[in-house]
């Protein structure tokens, strides 16, 4: 009887030791889970703090540049401002000149319109916008005539037609009149850079293939002694339409590869308020 009691005591002690070990393992697992969760919370808090430390102005700049140059390029994606795009891109220098002039007008007009957005009456907003844009176009034209008369002669009347450029009026109506001055200034700069980039691409292609030069510098592979002679077709209006179509096709192909938004209908098109197709379901 005593032996049986002793054996039972030993069995109970063994069971207690096993229970103690199981409790210890459970405690260890719980401690490890707590440490892991605390580490995750710490990393999340660190990431959150690092996100707060990021400059919001830098994020706005990146977003505006992506929108102006790639996703909503005014020439290749929105197909605005095609008149100067086709007319002045016979040379790369003319393309840069027109692009810089339009960018300056875009930035200045967006800034002023944004500052006066609560002052300009809604019924006369379009005439007011055109008046503001015309004032800055006059200033830019005077500067171009004073410092680069050759460029002024090359651009001709298309420099004055910036007043009625759909890009500038569209951004004034759809963006500057609804946003703060800094964002409007940034939007004008981004759209101007996108406009200039598209013009520069067209100007380089047309000048290289049509005249055998880039910025007036002869190319060794084109012209006398080169692999091919310059093609006059690219210096004429049909060549401009041909290159323009190729660049639009390339931009559409890139947008599909990058999963960029493809515009269907008017959407947030900056020219929707002034476009005759807006009441017909938009451009197809």
Overall spatial form: globular
User: Span between N and C termini?
Assistant: 100 Å
Largest sheet: 2 strands, antiparallel
Main sheet: strand order: 1-2
> For the residues shown, what is the average pLDDT?
78
* Helix proportion range: 55-70%
Low-pLDDT runs of 5+ residues are 1-11, 26-36, 42-52
Query: Helical region count?
Result: 10
Helix and strand composition category: mainly alpha
Work out the number of β strands.
Answer: 2
Spell out the helices and strands N to C: HHHHHHHHHEEH
Amount of beta strand:
under 5%
Radius of gyration: 32 Å
How would you characterize this protein structure?
By secondary structure, the protein is mainly α. Helices cover 68% and strands 1% of the residues. The chain has ten helices and two strands. It has a two-stranded antiparallel ribbon. The longest helix has 52 residues, at 2-53. The radius of gyration is 32 Å and the shape is globular. The relative contact order is 0.12. Mean pLDDT is 78; it is low at 1-11, 26-36 and 42-52.
